[in-house]
């Protein structure tokens, strides 16, 4: 099954949706719980008819929806088609999209031996060592994905955990500027726009990531 790149997603013209670390994401501002519930019911019916089911989070002021083809671990035509249907439903319900509010957080841990640490973190975060798959502790609605950044073995104390904050590509520079204005510094932007390393005032690091290359 063909998978979609970041450029493919842009070409598809999904104005309500952004591709982040794992699939397509959208937030719809429902304003109240009842409107959100009606919207989710309509999305659920469309998903059943399509035989393809998104992850949906209903809260008081908004609904978050994520789409990915889990069988290939990527965005496919099924996701693009259902995203368009969901956007049409939102328009019918007079519910605006809020792409400027989107973000996805992943945890990253530096280690020279992911296979030794992975089962521990899977058991701790997910309650099951089977959640350690293909070098990651897979996330769910409760916890973010944890991936292991392989490094050389070292004994010197250093920061081992950092956050990857995935932002829609067009908002990355604005987010970086806001973090710098709030006391942070840019440590490394050589790989931008794919990722930019920031640090807080005490040197704790995080990456602002996008799917743009």
Automatic annotation (TrEMBL):
Alphabetized PANTHER family for the sequence = PTERIN-4-ALPHA-CARBINOLAMINE DEHYDRATASE
Write down the Pfam families for this protein, in alphabetical order: Glyoxalase_6, Pterin_4a
Please report the name of this protein according to its UniProt entry: Putative pterin-4-alpha-carbinolamine dehydratase
What high-level taxonomic lineage is stated for the organism?
Bacteria, Bacillati, Actinomycetota, Actinomycetes, Micrococcales
Q: Name one GO molecular function term.
A: 4-alpha-hydroxytetrahydrobiopterin dehydratase activity
Quick check: keyword Protein transport in the entry?
Answer: no
Tell me its family. Answer: Belongs to the pterin-4-alpha-carbinolamine dehydratase family.
For this UniProt entry, which segments traverse the membrane? none
Q: Which UniProt keywords apply?
A: Lyase
* Family matches, as InterPro entries: Glyas_Bleomycin-R_OHBP_Dase (IPR029068), Glyoxalase_6 (IPR041581), PCD_sf (IPR036428), Pterin_deHydtase (IPR001533)
| Record domain Glyoxalase-like: where | 107-209
Gene3D superfamilies, per database record: 2,3-Dihydroxybiphenyl 1,2-Dioxygenase, domain 1, Transcriptional coactivator/pterin dehydratase
User: Which GO terms are recorded in the biological process aspect for this UniProt protein?
Assistant: tetrahydrobiopterin biosynthetic process
Classification via CDD domains: PCD_DCoH
Task: Give the enzyme class.
Answer: lyase
Q: What is its EC number?
A: 4.2.1.96
According to its UniProt record, which reaction does this protein catalyse? (4aS,6R)-4a-hydroxy-L-erythro-5,6,7,8-tetrahydrobiopterin = (6R)-L-erythro-6,7-dihydrobiopterin + H2O
